[in-house]
Amino acid sequence: MESSKKKEIYTIEDIYALPDGEHAELINGQIYYMAPPSWNHQKLSRKLLQTIANYIDRNSGECEALAAPFAVFLKGFCGTV
Question: What is the model's pLDDT at position 78?
């Protein structure tokens, strides 16, 4: 007998309701939980951010580099991977 259980569709409100420190992404109505970044990831991320920020500053850029976590919403994105 086949299960008639429906797949739940999650919203941005569900993401905001997660406990503090819980890392997850909302993709097409599904929540994907993410492991915390490793020590090496954090070191590499810091160096990359520093390099990008220095480049922007040297070239009088009008944008700025920001470190994660940072909420990004891609509404209407239709690209394929």
Answer: 56
